User: Fold Guanylate cyclase domain-containing protein from Oopsacas minuta.
Amino acid sequence: MIFVRNLIEEKTGMKIDQPNASGGTSSTGSVARRAFSCDSKYIECVLSVVETEHKETLSKLHTHLSAILRIINSDRIINTEVFGDLCADTYLLIVDSLPWVSITPTLHRVLAHSEEILKEFNHGRGLKSFSEEGSEACNKLLRKYRENLARKSSFEDNAMDIFVRLASESDPVLNQFRSSLVCERCGEHGHTKRAKCCRDNTENRLLDSSIDEIVDSLIINS
Assistant:
């Protein structure tokens, strides 16, 4: 496990399951998104250290899980029956072809219960609107504002100052004057030329297209 972890960090720069300064681990949502993105370096590192008989299964599993996560994190109307079949097939793929793999509670909830959640509790749509990433991303800002930029005279004053600061962070008028990153390679805003999305890799595009085909087959409409 340590060898695989070190290999992934060497080839991709991703730190997997390592302790960080906050007391948690480096296996964050950002790392997971990159692992299941169109960047093929991660899955290539994993496949390079497994037996030949398992390579096709792991590659298929990576594609299926990437498609499932994209569907769950979208706000599209989903064909829940087909989505449920995909989740069930993925679950059986792990159980039948990789019996030595331990199914974590999180993976079980995704593969066994996500169809029910989308269908019964969200009217057949993805769960994008229920994501906690926005509130989690504000933790550092909340701590900074509470400790340094808010009144300590009372709880109400402190909460009001924090609220005003957060409101100004998302103000569209103020955001117009913020400087944004510009890529020197493609000219797009929001990233630099060193970003992974700028690296024109044919294998990545092929991998991404295979995932998009699965996702498109599950979407009823936009």
Summary: The longest strand covers residues 219-221. Confidence is low (pLDDT under 50) at residues 199-206. Residues 134-175 form one domain.
